[in-house]
Amino acid sequence: MIYDIAIIGGGPAGMMAAGRSAELGANVILLEKNKDLGLKLLMTGNGRCNITNLIEDPRKLVQAYGANGKFLFSALSKFGPREVIEFFNQRGVRTKVEDNNRVFTASDKAADVLRALVNYLKYTRVQVRTGARVKEITSLDNKIEKIILANGEEIVANKFIITTGGKSYPLSGSTGDGYKWLKDFGHEIVPTLPALTSLVLKDKFIPELEGVSLARVQISLLRDKKNLFSGIGETVFTRDGISGPLILNMSNLIGRELPAKLKLQIDFYPDLDLSGLDKKIQKDFQVDKNKSFKNFIAKLLAPKLAPIIIKLSGIDPEKKVNQVSGEERRMLIRLLKEFGLEIYGLAGYERAMLTSGGVKLSEVDPKTMKSKLIDNLYLAGEMLDLAGPTGGFNLQVSWSTGYIAGESAAGLDLGFSPVKW
Description:
Layout: E1 2-8, H1 12-23, E2 28-32, E3 50-53, H2 58-63, H3 73-78, H4 81-90, E4 95-97, E5 102-105, H5 110-123, E6 127-130, E7 134-140, E8 143-149, E9 154-162, H6 177-184, E10 189-195, E11 199-201, E12 213-223, E13 226-237, E14 241-243, H7 245-257, E15 262-267, H8 274-287, H9 293-300, H10 306-313, H11 326-337, E16 339-346, E17 354-359, E18 377-379, H12 393-409
Helix pairs in contact: 1-5, 1-12, 8-11, 9-10, 10-11
C-alpha cells in the first residue's frame, strides 16, 4: 500500500501534523517507536501541560524566540495561540490563563491534551503504528522513497513528515534519531545542546543548599565581569546546582558561551541598592542590637543559606550585632547583593526540557515547513533550530509547525476533500 503521507514521530508536532493532513482527506500513517503516543507531552509543565502562551502582539510573541523567531511569523499567523486554544476547547479541553500569559488545561492534567489529540487521530482515521522503530529511510533523486522499519517492513508514501523531536527527556524516546537521517540527506544540523535545563555549579557548599527556594531574587550571568543577562524571579537549589524559571531561560545562552568561565551573581534584595540595603541593615542592627550575628542572619535568609553567608562574611557568629564593625557590615551587604556562584556546566539532556540547535532554518520553507533539499519532505517541532523560553512557547512551536506541515503536505496541492465534522 502506498500512503499519501507517512509521519515519523508521535509527539505533539507529529500528532498535530497527522490529524491536520488526514482532516484534509489524505491517507496518513503515523509511526511512533514507543508503545504509546505523546510520552513527552505527559511530562510537560510537571504533568500540567502549559499548552501555549497567550501573547496577543505577534511581534512580541516572535521576539520571545530570539533571532530565529522571525521564521515563525507565517506559522504563528496561521495557527497561533488563539487557534491552539480554540482547537483544544472544541475537543473538550477547557483551558485557563495563569500569570505571564501561560495557558494550562483547567484540570491541570496533560493527559486531557493527549486524549484530545488521540481522539483527533481516530476521528480523522489516521493509521497509528506504535512500537514502530525506523531502521532506515531511503531516498533517490532528492526524494524519499520509503521507510524501512526494524522488523523489515517497508512503508511507502508520496510525502513524508519527520517530527522526531530533540534529545531532551531521552526516557521518553527523544534520542535525536532525526538529526542523523537529515544529515544524511544533506541538511545542516546546528550543534545541539540541552536547553531549559538546570545548571551544575562548582561551589563546594552547593549540596548543603539542596531544596532552598528563593521567591524573588535577581540573578545575573557574568563573563569576565561583563553582564550577559539579568532577570528577577524564582530559583531553587538542587543537589549539584541551581534551577528555576530564571535559570532555565538563561541555560540556552550559557550553553552557547561555555566553556568560557561563567559566574552567577544573586542579589537577595533586588528592590534596594547598596545604600538602601545598608540603611536597612543599620536600622535592623539597632532594633536587634543584643542579638548574636548568627541569630540575626537567620531572620534575613533561608536556614540553610544563613551559615554559608556567615562563613563567607568572616564575621564571628556569636558577636552581638551592635559590635559588628562598619567594614564587616559592608562585607555582609556585598554578599547579600553580589552572592557569587561558579558555573561548571549544564545538566544533561535527561534533565533538559528542550534541545537547542537542530535543522538549520534556512533549509526549510517557513510557509510550508517543506525541506528545500528533499522534494517530498516536511519538518516540524523541536528538531528545528528553534528554542523559546519556558511558559508554553515551545509547545506552541510544535502545534504551529506541525499544523502547517500537515496542511502543506496534504492541502490544496493534492486536492483532497476535507473531513466533514
